[in-house]
Amino acid sequence: MAWRQRMGLEQVGAPNGGGTVRELMNWWMQVFSEGNTSHPKNASTIKRHLLAGQLADVRLADLSKGRVESFLDEKTKEGLSAQTVNHIRGFLSRAFSAAIDRERWYGKNPVSETKKRRGPKRLADFLRFEEVGPVIAQVPPQHFHSTSTGS
């Protein structure tokens, strides 16, 4: 790999491993989130779930797909909904993508290969036969119209 880097075939990694997840997320919030109407909510979620845990101090160079999957699994075990876990995953993925676009990070986005969490499927709740009559009885007469063909 060192030969490939010297020949310009592979990017040379940052000496500090690209910084930590905490530094990446703080940079992303400052550059991309601040000023948006959703910033307070973004910042709250990121601080609570990404900056308060062990993942925050992981060097970007050490963050693998498996490590991200394990982190997301832990969030699910904490009782967070699939939607919330996917929001956390999205923040981390967008931060990596932005860092790659801005040449702040030269590695791959380890989040892009992780799976989105699926929540329980909700069954549609239709009116039951015995509920149809009472509901129709509450519809004002002006909402009914004639269906005659006029022949």
| Strand residues, percent | under 5%
What oligomeric state is this?
single chain
Structural class category: mainly alpha
Helices, by number, come to 6
Low-confidence parts = none
Care to count the β-strands?
Answer: 0
Span between termini: 85 Å
The biggest sheet, with number of strands, parallel, antiparallel or mixed sense and barrel status, is: none
The CATH C-level class name of the domain at 20-101? Mainly Alpha
What's the order of the H and E elements? HHHHHH
Please summarize what this structure is.
Helix content is 48%, strand content 0%. By secondary structure, the protein is mostly helical. The protein has a domain at 20-101: DNA polymerase, domain 1 (Orthogonal Bundle), CATH 1.10.150.
Task: Kindly describe this structure.
The chain has about 150 residues and is mainly alpha-helical. Helix content is about 50%, strand content about 0%. The mean pLDDT is about 85.
What topology does this entry show?
Blueprint: H1 2-6, H2 21-33, H3 39-51, H4 65-77, H5 82-101, H6 129-137
Which properties best describe this structure?
single chain, about 150 residues, mainly alpha, DNA polymerase, domain 1, 6 helices, elongated
